[in-house]
Specification:
The chain is mainly alpha-helical. It has nine helices and four strands. A hairpin with a 6-residue loop joins strand 1 and strand 2. Helix 2 packs across helix 9. It is elongated, with a radius of gyration of 20 Å.
């Protein structure tokens, strides 16, 4: 028997092993699994000293320590506006750590729109999102953040393709991370 203390009323009660296993199963739901995978990916980015999404100098570690933003690569409001449910847009494969000002500038723009501007800024255009102004830096940033290189071509019709491609890139990064431990 295990003693469990209710977080609401602070009363202790006894639970047998089967009941305890049931409680753990409820706690370790899909949200728990999602958070676990997100933190593993984050650990891999921290160990690699990766730059934040669209950042030239700020690392993922800096973003975490200074409370930067978790950006939806396909912005949440953009997907909501097109009828996507919460479970579809709040996925690890759609999250990237970025500077608050970059996240604010992107707002709810479609990736092929805002990322098209990012590609233009690497060709000498005005800096609109982050400070990356070199194609090689942009490519390295996308690789570090496991973002498919063709994001500037991806619209709403390719969201599922984006998620699948990013999951593969993230899995490869996690494999490298585990191998380095």
């Amino acid at each position: 028997m295990n003693d469990i203390i209710c977080p609401h009323c602070n009363k202790a009660f006894k639970v047998d092993e089967a009941g305890y296993a049931d409680i753990l199963k409820q706690v370790h739901d899909s949200e728990f699994e999602q958070q676990l995978h997100e933190r593993l990916f984050l650990a891999a980015q921290i160990k690699a000293n990766d730059k934040a999404f669209l950042s030239k100098d700020i690392t993922v570690t800096d973003i975490i320590l200074n409370r930067g933003d978790i950006h939806h690569v396909f912005p949440r409001n953009f997907l909501k506006k097109h009828g996507f449910p919460r479970g579809k847009y709040n996925q690890i494969a759609n999250f990237a750590y970025t500077q608050t000002e970059t996240n604010i500038k992107i707002r709810d723009r479609e990736p092929k729109v805002y990322f098209g501007d990012v590609v233009e800024q690497t060709k000498g255009g005005e800096l609109s999102y982050g400070a990356i102004n070199d194609p090689a830096e942009l490519k390295a940033n996308l690789i570090a953040n496991c973002i498919p290189q063709e994001l500037h071509e991806m619209g709403l019709d390719r969201y599922d393709e984006f998620l699948a491609a990013r999951r593969k890139l993230m899995a490869a990064k996690l494999k490298t991370y585990y191998s380095s431990l």
